[in-house]
Amino acid sequence: MTAYEKPILDRQEIEQILSTQLGTCHITELEPLTGGNLSRVFSFRYDGRAGVIKLSDLAGAYDTERFVSKLLTSHGVPFPQCLGEGQVNELSYSILERLPGSMLIDCTDEQKQAQLPELIRILARMNEVPVDMTKGYGWIKPDGSGTSPTWMAHVESFFAEDQIGNFWEGWYDLFRTTCLEKSVFDECYARLLHYVPFNEPHRHFVHGDFHPWNIMSSGDRITGIIDGNCVYGDFLHDLDTLRGTLGGLDVVAAYKENIDALGIIIPNFDERMLGARYFKGLDAMRFYAKMDWENAYYELRDSLINLIN
After folding, report:
1. CATH of 102-305, one of 3.90.1200.10, 3.40.50.2000, 3.10.20.30, 3.40.50.150
2. What pLDDT digit, counting tens, does each position of 198-217 carry?
3. Whole-model pTM?
4. Range name among 10-24, 164-178, 183-197 with the lowest pLDDT average
5. CA distances from 243 to 84, 114, 185, 273 (A)
6. What gap in Å lies between CA 255 and CA 79, rounded to an integer?
7. In the CATH scheme, what is the code of domain 11-97?
8. How far is CA 247 from CA 108, 109, 223, in A?
9. Is Membrane given among the entry's keywords (predicted)?
10. Rounded distance, CA 125 to CA 128, Å?
């Protein structure tokens, strides 16, 4: 299995998609954007407005984008409005409004620290979006329901050997062809299964990729959240993702300060955070291996092994 390469589409074809979907021939400033591990992303302007188009050759890559956009924006979460989606040849595409600002990762540590309280409030608001009108856990389908009956079922299917038609098809080859070590993976997976029962009862909207590359900032305030691998599950998965990607900032302490001020008690907090850390960590380990990011792999590997004694 080789490192994943993002899809390529001719510039004129992209302009044609945008003109057709948006009903205008005035597409200007079409430029590629950095970021996006699995999507090819372009920014553009049309009729005085800013937008982005994402392209992927992964089946169903953007099937839930419109549902998620409507769900979050209708409950005050700053998320891009979905302007259109479709497919051309073997590529799926999604067109969204472009949020102002740049990625939070580009801010200084001082700027990140100053924006952390606002970011925690947005995280809490997103995870409190009502989901009782839907059912199921795991991946969110276009109709808003989850693909799995339980969180355990989602975990088992997510790390199953047999994956067809998605990014992880044939991923067991990584144990043979990359730095991914099966003995280490199996040990951490066993630990994950130990903590799943603590996460299992909690069903919320989970962004799934809540890190500073998917958080937009003006430099002094958060302007919105983008992308996501959205699921129904324990909201602490998003907190753990943020904890692991904001460097030296004490994200967990800031989160606890916020919930303490609101008088909220979160049961089994430590156990649920460990369940989240092993779930996200195992996925990141195999991702780093597939992308040939060996330094990142070994750093994460060591942290997961030493997480508990």
Report:
1. 3.90.1200.10
2. 999 999 999 999 999 999 99
3. 0.89
4. 10-24
5. 33, 16, 22, 10
6. 21
7. 3.30.200.150
8. 11, 9, 20
9. no
10. 5
